Structure formats: structure tokens, C-alpha cells
User: What shape does this take?
Amino acid sequence: MGAGEILIILVIAFLLFGPKQLPEVGRQVGKAVRGFKETADDLRKSVEPEINLIQQEVKMVEQDFQASMKEAEQDIENITKGPEKTSDANAKA
Assistant: This one.
């Protein structure tokens, strides 16, 4: 928000609540904002460890998957190369 927008909001608040109620409204808004920030911080503190745990699990699954893929590729290579080696050995004999 720019300075002009904030000024317009303050003028409207002044007109709606008047000079006597405006400080109290400001305090209430401040308390509400503070409460919101505290709640957001608490939520972040409780969710971050769970997110970190999930990220670690995803990394482990990814590593397991890559290892399985390498093993499968090696098995496929062994299967495809196997008959060639045996046919070469039979041709030599």
C-alpha cells in the first residue's frame, strides 16, 4: 500500500469513528494484528518440523528409486548382453 492509500484509510476511519473512538479502534486493530502474527508464528513453528520430515522422507524415497532404477538398468543390460556372450562362446567352440 502506498502513502496515499493509507492516508485515505485514515481519513475514512477518522470520519467513521471520530477523534474520541479512533485511538481505541487503533489499539484493537493493533491487538488483532499482533494476535494474528503470533498465531501465524505458532503455526509456522508447528508445521516446519513436519515439512522438514516430509522433505527428508521424499529424499530417501528418491534415492531408493534411483538405486532401483540403476539396478534395473544393470539387470536389463545383463539380460540383453547375456545371449550375445553365450552365442559368441558357442561360435568359438
Remarks:
- The CA atoms of residues 37 and 71 lie 50 Å apart.
- The two ends are 86 Å apart (CA to CA).
